[in-house]
Amino acid sequence: MPFGQTRSHFPKMWVRGRNSQSGYYRHSDKGKEKKPARKSGSLPGQAVLLLVVYGLFAAANALSGAFVNVYLWKESHNFALIGGFSLAHYVVNALTFFLSGKWVKERNKMISLRLGIAVSAAFYLLVLLLKSKAIDYAYVLGAVQGIGAGLYWLAFNVVYFEVTDPDNRDRFNGGAGLLSSGAGMIAPWLSGWIIVSMADNAGYMLIFSISLGVFVLGVIVSLFLRKRKLCGTYEWTHAFRNIQEKGNPWRRAIPALVAQGAREGVFLFVIGLLVFIATNDEQKLGNFSLITSGVALISFWLIGKLLKPHYRSATMLVGTVVMTLIILPLFWDVNYATLLLFGIVTSLFFPLFSIPMTSTVFDIIGRDRESAEHRVEYVVFRELGLNTGRILGVLLFIIVVSQSTKPPAINSLLLAVGSLPILSWLFMRKIQGIKTKKS
């Protein structure tokens, strides 16, 4: 479809169906030879290939993700700098999502996907070139990482929506969690072993180089994903108008996403950093990831396999309550044992929260034909909600550590932001199992 053309790619005759460009609606295809029906809940080939790309992206990040923060910490011993690195990432990530939406909808979303992986590779190339000077460019590096993540996740989420449907979305999310947990189990353990086995910072340089190579492999594999159809003209303010409509599910979904993002923004980098500070041993950080990701792998597999849409609200409540309560032992002592207990329990119960949360939001995007036509705008809207929360969470972290870095202050911060998923459940519980409309 030429740039700027306003005609939707959706044909006039629609029926409910799976594996469509819309994520739920498909063309009725009357008069054409019917293909063998796919088993309900199974994943089509393009969804499986997308999971492979996701797995490579997750593996590259798992190899070096936590150790980038540790590397910056060892060079600076500055909590605020680590927070600033993450803040730059989230701010630029949000801007990238918002500004790239037009390209993804009107031009080529696969270019965005591949470019995002390539820019993520460039981030590690810059770290390799800067070496110990990386702390002087921490905000720039955070911005580069944010650009790569924004380009990748925008395209990924749109394609994910297009190759899945409400019947297999929980299965896909379970598979994605399985892959990320598997990568998080093996890769950091391997990275920790490499770092402690090599002198000075040579181990860090090696694992950053391996991540660079895996990202390049991810670009190559992504070439086998088919080019997706264009889906009309991008409307900058379309999704935002939803929060003005009484009864619109986005009025509940957005604050739920902000609450989820606030927790993610802090916990994604603080926990690994606390493990290293408590032990001063990269291998123990690798062991921590090995154990907790192993638990998460089993949990994601079971929940992705067994969870049904009508159980989403109940499972979210259980997950959020347990994830909050397990923060309390840290007030007794922040050591490897209490952090490991926190990590294991969180890994076990986090899928109860994340799988229903993600699936429900994407079901809202595909609830009817009009909504599915604006899926790019809604994916951008979703990510802006998450990044708003992440930015607020990291800003709160920077404010707290600027005043005090003692355990009671940091633990109170963790409890405050760690309990926010309860708000996500409160907002989401009335829109769980949202019904799609026949057209």
TrEMBL record:
Keywords, sorted A to Z: Membrane, Transmembrane, Transmembrane helix
Cellular component, GO annotation: plasma membrane
Listed GO MF terms: transmembrane transporter activity
Spans annotated as Disordered: 21-41
Bilayer topology: Multi-pass membrane protein
Species of the source: Xylanibacillus composti
Transmembrane segments: 48-73, 79-99, 111-131, 137-160, 172-196, 202-225, 261-279, 285-303, 315-332, 338-364, 409-428
Protein name listed in UniProt: MFS transporter
SUPFAM superfamilies (alphabetical): MFS general substrate transporter (SSF103473)
Organism lineage: Bacteria, Bacillati, Bacillota, Bacilli, Bacillales
Compartments in which it is found: Cell membrane
Alphabetical list of Gene3D superfamilies matching this protein: MFS general substrate transporter like domains
